[in-house]
Amino acid sequence: MSQPAAAQAPQLAYGLSSADVSNGFIASVLEACVTAAERGVRLDQLSNYRILHDTVRSTSRPPKPGYAAWAPGLGQGIVEIEDGPGGCDVSAHGAPITGTFEIIVMSLRARGYALEPEGEPHKRELHTKLANGRSVTVVLTGVEAGSGSPTPFSQLAASITSIAP
Fold it and tell me: How many CB atoms lie within 10 A of CB 25?
């Protein structure tokens, strides 16, 4: 009598691991979008070799009008960045939400960002006002796989906005 096959976790595309996606998401938020927001520039004005124009992204998911598609070198195809006049948005799937968000929150708090009191599960909001008067807001949201997510993977998103004085 044969043993039933163990259920296998769904595989991420492009041979990426959940750690790859987490690292790509973290780099996209901290090294790209937050840095650009703090400086008051767009991603194409940064000299960040780890963030590239997204050439893998399908035409079925074009960026919002007026926005440019970017991706981290690690995580390209799963981690997506849209940079435009309203700010910078990062989305990904398949990374652990809690651990990924904890790293981002700790890094931003070390940079002087204030964490708003927790509201919804898997939602974190951080704010800072820089010495030059610029105000930056980072909102992190996540949905665990199987809890309202249309895919078998966790869903992560970050929205970074900047307001000049």
Answer: 32
CB 80 within 8 A of CB 69: yes
What is the identity of the amino acid at 78? I
- Please answer whether residues 31 and 75 qualify as being in contact, where contact means their C-beta atoms are separated by less than 8 angstroms: no
Assess contact for 31 and 48: CB atoms under 8 A. yes
Phi, psi of 69 (to 5 degrees): -90, 130
pLDDT digits (tens, 9 = 90+) for 57-105: 766 678 889 999 999 988 888 999 999 998 999 999 999 999 999 999 9
pTM value? Answer: 0.87
Return the beta strands (E) in the chain as ranges. Answer: 51-53, 68-72, 80-84, 87-93, 114-115, 123-129, 135-143, 155-163
Per residue in 124-151, pLDDT (tens digit) is 888 888 877 889 999 999 988 876 656 7
18-27 helix and 97-110 helix, angle to the nearest 10 degrees? 30
pLDDT, tens digit (0-9, with 9 covering 90-100), for 6-29: 445 567 777 888 999 999 999 999
Q: For the chain, where are the alpha helices, taking DSSP H only?
A: 18-27, 35-39, 97-110
CA gap 26, 49 in Å, rounded: 15
